[in-house]
From TrEMBL:
PROSITE patterns tied to this protein: SSD
PANTHER family: MEMBRANE PROTEIN MJ1562-RELATED, MEMBRANE PROTEIN YDGH-RELATED
Pfam family for this entry, one: MMPL
Cell membrane found in the keyword field: yes
Membrane topology: Multi-pass membrane protein
Swiss-Prot/TrEMBL keywords: Cell membrane, Membrane, Transmembrane, Transmembrane helix
Transmembrane region(s): 21-40, 173-194, 201-225, 237-259, 280-303, 315-340, 376-397, 522-540, 547-568, 580-598, 619-641, 653-677
Annotated SSD domain residues: 169-334, 548-678
Gene3D superfamilies the UniProt entry points to: Multidrug efflux transporter AcrB transmembrane domain (1.20.1640.10)
Protein known as: Putative drug exporter of the RND superfamily
Region forming the signal peptide: none
Family: Belongs to the resistance-nodulation-cell division (RND) (TC 2.A.6) family. MmpL subfamily.
Record's keyword annotation contains Transcription: no
Length: 709
């Protein structure tokens, strides 16, 4: 205990000392000067292949690897141009398609484009070809192809789809989105800070500090990606920005609120900051540890995009913690009390023994309401959360590809056009990779599978060892029926002796993704809960309280999913991307525990002084305003994800935003304190606080600190 207190004193002295505060500022200026150029380069190391990657052990991944080894010249993304005229194609339409076929040869891998495939109803034609070149060259080629398609006879509808078209749509949708997200996040935080502090100046300090933390986090992530193989993609970079701003501002609100209290008790602002930092660093550090270690639990996931999010987010939390406990205190002390203008906290000898709860009228009344009938309050709150959870019935897992964008894009339009005139699986057939010897048996086995509409002829690899067989499914590639067909197809071709058959393709990918996510849920969810429980036990030195808190955040998560189900269903986005439940669970459990940590650490502190009942109610009163502000800021910050044009981002924004608000206004404000009062001092078992004793009601302790040099 003594060592821990000494460490807190040293940290507080560094950030708040009369001379060391300037050293701290200079240190951060040097750090930012070094980090800035590296942070800008973060987009250079993005590897967005992880967004769609599966574990190497998945059959779809093994099929891709075999195809790359056996057919090295045919693994370029396929562009599929579709032409449709309702009522039947004209001669001019066919001439347009022939001209495009000739024009597209310069972009095709191998320099050839196969003849157009007509639909049975005579209303559509398809041109498909693999696009040559690297990512930049393919982007230029696809742009030219789209321009060529746009010059069509009146009444002829055209679109570009297939993997190449979809890839281009994703990058078009995200063009400039990193800057847009950063500006939206910063503007949201700035507005809420301005409302919270009602000061024309103070709001700038935490905003600038958290922006500095974001630069540091981006620079560290860049270095880890460049030199340590850390996977970074569009998703993890977006989450990094939101997480640093949201969590960093939360820490700032907590510290500044405590600093404001101490400024009224200390004539010397350096001493006030030293006390404020020492008395808040425990809660802030425990909060950061909970979220960071919770994020690192994602390393146990098999899905690469989920696994890569863990260390990136943990770096962001560490950067926010460092900036808010070193840079922010130093800057606040340097500028002095006038930052709070027009509500400047003045030192008053009378404030030394003043109970600050008297200054929180609204939360004093809420605490009184909770204290009068705690059993009724926690039962009523729990019932409301359970009622909200029934909204989960509006949600389903599995998002069709054509519903993944918030706006209409060419690849989705093209897919729908193909589905209207061709077998539904024509745009994305199942791909069978098998040994060449028993190829005929594999074809026969595939044709006998219910749900397979057509099986193509085997294409032999250059070395003659393997064959590629395309199997067109009767159902839409991302439908449940198609997934079941691929399952049956795998069973059928696996049974062919000596075939060594693997089934890949888009539908096989979705099937393997669903199974991988299911496995990750079973492993990561219990791991996160165990980590959070251990941290709470160490922090509160109790067993009962951590169990109750863990149960409360799980209930909050289920209620958040239910409430989000009602909202997302109204928005038209009820089909969740498969990775959403796990990712939102992690954030809501870890971040939800954040606010409970802020409350319970203060409650433990006050219980030791005032006794259990008065301590819990006093903690609720004095932390209510700042924690509520922090919750609103965090919810609004995650809401900024909705500016991204992908439905999974909107779903994450809604679920996390709703969950944080429920946790702030219901769980932390009503459920947890009422439950603690109902259980009584036993909530702190087995610590000494669980043994009731008569304690005098004392004035708040006066902690004097000499400012460090």
């Amino acid at each position: 205990m003594t060592t821990r207190l000494q460490e807190k004193h040293r940290l507080a002295g560094l950030a708040s000392g009369r001379r060391s505060k300037y050293a701290m500022l200079i240190f951060w200026l040097v750090l930012v000067a070094a980090a800035g150029p590296l942070a800008i380069k973060l987009t250079e190391v993005q590897d967005n292949d992880t967004l769609g990657a599966l574990p190497a052990t998945a059959e779809a991944s093994r099929a891709v690897q075999r195809a790359e080894d056996a057919f090295p010249d045919s693994q370029k993304p396929l562009a599929v141009a579709v032409y449709v005229r309702d009522g039947g194609l004209t001669g001019a339409d066919r001439a347009k398609v022939d001209g495009d076929r000739t024009a597209f040869t310069r972009y095709a891998d191998g320099g050839q484009v196969p003849p157009a495939i007509p639909s049975d109803d005579g209303q559509a034609l398809l041109l498909s070809f693999p696009v040559a070149g690297d990512a930049d060259q393919r982007a230029d080629a696809v742009a030219d192809v789209k321009e060529q398609l746009g010059d069509a006879p009146a009444g002829l509808r055209t679109a570009l789809t297939g993997p190449a078209g979809g890839e281009d749509d994703v990058f078009d949708a995200f063009a400039g989105m990193d800057t847009t997200l950063l500006l939206a996040t910063a503007a949201t935080v700035a507005l809420l800070l301005l409302v919270t502090y009602r000061s024309p100046v103070l709001w700038l300090i935490p905003l600038i500090t958290v922006a500095v933390a974001n630069q540091l986090a981006s620079a560290v992530v860049y270095l880890l990606a460049r030199h340590a193989g850390l996977a970074v993609d569009l998703q993890s970079q977006s989450i990094l920005t939101v997480l640093v701003f949201g969590v960093g501002v939360d820490y700032a609100l907590l510290l500044i609120a405590r600093y404001r209290e101490e400024l009224r008790r200390h004539a010397d602002r350096h001493a006030a900051m030293a006390v404020a930092l020492r008395r808040s660093i425990g809660a802030i550090g425990a909060s950061a540890a909970t979220v960071a270690i919770g994020l690192l639990c994602l390393l146990a996931a098999h899905l690469p995009s989920t696994r890569g999010l863990g260390p990136v987010g943990a770096v962001g939390i560490a950067a926010a913690l460092l900036a808010m406990t070193t840079l922010l205190p130093a800057v606040l002390v340097i500028f002095g009390r006038w930052l709070f203008w027009p509500f400047v906290p003045r030192y008053s000898p009378d404030a030394v023994g003043l109970d600050v709860a008297a200054q929180h009228g609204v939360w004093r009344r809420i605490a009184g309401f909770v204290g009068r009938r705690p059993r009724a309050v926690w039962l009523g709150t729990a019932a409301a959360l359970v009622a909200l959870s029934f909204g989960i019935g509006n949600l389903s897992i599995g998002m069709p590809h054509d519903e993944s964008f918030t706006k209409e894009v060419g690849s989705v339009t093209g897919q729908r056009m193909i589905e209207a005139h061709y077998p539904r699986g024509a745009v994305a057939p199942a791909e069978i990779l098998a040994a060449a010897g028993p190829a005929d048996q594999v074809v026969a086995a595939a044709r006998a599978v219910p749900g397979v509409a057509e099986v193509g002829e085997p294409q032999r690899s250059p070395d003659g060892r393997w064959v590629h067989i395309a199997a067109v499914l009767a159902d839409t590639p991302d439908s449940d029926a198609a997934l079941d067909t691929v399952d049956r197809l795998r069973d059928a071709v696996h049974a062919v002796p000596g075939a060594q058959a693997l089934v890949g393709g888009d539908t096989a990918y979705l099937l393997d993704e669903e199974r991988t996510v299911g496995r990750d849920n079973l492993v990561v969810v219990p791991l996160v809960l165990a980590v959070v429980f251990v941290i709470l036990v160490l922090l509160l030195r109790a067993l009962v309280a951590p169990l109750l808190l863990l149960a409360s955040v799980v209930l909050s998560y289920v209620a958040a999913m239910g409430a989000a189900g009602l909202i997302l269903d109204a928005m038209g986005y009820p089909k969740l991307f498969v990775g959403i439940p796990l990712q939102t669970f992690l954030f809501l459990v870890a971040l939800g525990v954040d606010y409970t940590i802020f409350l319970t650490t203060r409650a433990r502190e006050e219980t030791a002084r005032l006794g259990h009942r008065r301590g819990v109610l006093h903690a609720l009163t004095v932390t209510g305003g700042v924690i509520t502000s922090a919750g609103v800021v965090l919810a609004a910050t995650f809401g900024a994800l909705s500016v991204l044009p992908l439905v999974p981002s909107v779903q994450s924004a809604v679920i996390i935003g709703v969950g944080v608000l429920l946790d702030t206004f219901l769980v932390r404000s009503l459920l947890v304190p009422a439950l603690a009062l109902h259980v009584g001092p036993r909530v702190w078992w087995p610590s000494a606080l669980a043994r009731p004793a008569i304690r005098p009601v004392a004035a708040p302790p006066v902690e004097r600190a000499a400012a460090a040099s």
